[in-house]
Design brief:
This protein is an alpha/beta fold. The protein has 2 domains: about 240 residues, TIM Barrel, CATH 3.20.20.10; about 110 residues, Lyase, Ornithine Decarboxylase, Chain A, domain 1 (Beta Barrel), CATH 2.40.37.10. Helices cover about 30% and strands about 25% of the residues. The strands form 5 sheets. Strands 2, 14, 15, 16, 18, 19, 21 and 22 form an 8-stranded mixed sheet that branches. The structure holds pyridoxal-5'-phosphate.
């Protein structure tokens, strides 16, 4: 048996041995200055080599698992194209995500559609482009497919309980595993082929043992569905692979190794295809934000720094995704650090990026780097207050 780190230890951010993975920028401050001269700020820098390395690490530790990158995390063509060239497939939930994937080079037969509750328009638009794998988790969605697209391959989504995930993705979707066979039988009676079973352990799942717990439950549901006549041939283990923010996480290769062992133990005896839908774990670390200090003041005895990017922009992940982004200042090792407030550029008082990070005294014009800015950042940014959404620039 391999050793295993408990989530409590991970959450404390204390010693997690050789396995720790910390948040690191994809560029140096010298590169950031050069890029900001060229493109201005705020700019999100996508490192193709960092993204490729993540893909290759996942593939080497999980050689029998096909990757369907979850476009929801970041559907920018810079990310999608690199993953396409690496040999990834893609998971889309809408027609616009599908169009971005097409633009990046993916063909519809490299796509699965994983939205359990889609509009008929969404369903038909993606079907008409050639997508043939669609997800259901209840009778109503089965009936939608029977009515509009009876010849598709059905993915039956199970709800998953995960103790160590930051974001529960089963609060809204997924059937109770105990009901899976009943739903599969209903789909079969209505002429559909349930060929895939899926689940999502929750996003930013710190503990790979949560996958094992869910895999055991999924195997039971799988056997019940097969006994009920479902032609299951694909297991989809979803996403959930974590990324390091201000808290470090287990190394990607160790994490995937734990997962691989759990897959072997639970589904290793079946000659099936196994696929995964990593979003955050694939793209988060490949992107670093360059933002600039555009103003400073002292309020209530504390220094306040105003950046040209905030929670209506790339820091939207702080609000919607509960991500705690680390702010990296160049002078952090030189000038003494102190408590401060770092705020975004809009007129909204709520637009505050950090209140609990100590930074050196900053001057207007200084650059701040923010690593791990690839997932659920620009994807949920808006142009509120008439400000531009951060430019995205690719580097090798
Ligand atoms: C959001 C989502 C993903 C990606 O999840 P991550 O935690 O970012 O890896 C994968 N599959 C489905 C169905 C999702 O909704």
């Amino acid at each position: 048996m391999t050793s295993f780190t408990t989530p409590a230890v991970l959450q404390l951010g204390t010693d997690i041995g050789t396995s720790a993975r910390v948040s690191t920028p994809v560029i140096s401050f010298d590169q950031a200055r050069e890029l900001s001269r060229q493109y201005g700020t705020p700019t999100l820098v996508v490192s193709r080599s960092r993204l490729s390395r993540t893909y290759q690490t996942m593939k080497s530790e999980l050689p029998n698992v096909e990757m369907f990158y979850a476009a929801k995390a970041n559907s920018d063509v810079s990310i999608l194209r690199t993953l396409f060239l690496e040999g990834s497939s893609v998971d889309v939930c809408s027609y616009r995500e599908l169009q971005s994937a097409l633009l990046a080079g993916f063909k519809p037969d490299q796509m699965i559609h994983t939205h359990p509750c889609k509009t008929v328009q969404n369903l038909m638009d993606c079907y008409n482009e050639g997508v043939r794998w669609f997800t259901v988790d209840c009778s109503g969605e089965i009936d939608k497919l029977v009515r509009h697209t009876p010849d598709v391959n059905v993915i039956l989504r199970l709800a998953a309980a995960s103790s160590s995930s930051l974001i529960n993705l089963s609060a809204k979707f997924g059937c109770d595993p105990a009901d899976a066979a009943t739903l599969a039988a209903e789909a079969g009676r209505k002429g559909l082929s349930v060929r895939c079973m899926s689940f999502h352990v929750g996003s930013q799942c710190l503990n790979p043992e949560d996958f094992r717990t869910m895999l055991v439950r999924a195997r039971q549901a799988w056997d019940e569905c097969v006994a009920a006549g479902a032609p299951l041939e694909v297991l989809d283990i979803g996403g959930g692979f974590p990324a390091p923010y201000r808290t470090s996480v287990m190394s990607l290769s160790d994490y995937c190794h734990h997962l691989s062992v759990a897959l072997d133990a639970t589904f290793g005896d079946l000659p099936i295809r196994i696929i995964a839908e990593p979003g955050r774990g694939m793209c988060a670390e490949a992107v670093t934000l360059i933002t600039k200090v555009v103003g400073k003041s002292v309020r209530g005895g504390l220094p306040w720094y105003f950046l040209d990017e905030g929670i209506y922009g790339s820091f939207s992940g702080k609000l919607f995704d509960y991500s705690d982004f680390e702010l990296v200042a160049e002078a952090a090792e030189i000038r003494p650090r102190s408590a401060c407030v770092v705020a975004g550029p809009t007129c909204d008082s709520h637009d505050v990026v950090s209140t609990d990070q100590e930074l050196p005294e900053l001057e207007v014009g200084e650059l701040i780097l923010v690593p791990t800015m690839g997932a659920y950042t620009s994807a949920s940014a808006s142009g509120f207050n008439g400000l531009d959404i951060a430019r995205i620039v690719e580097i090798d």
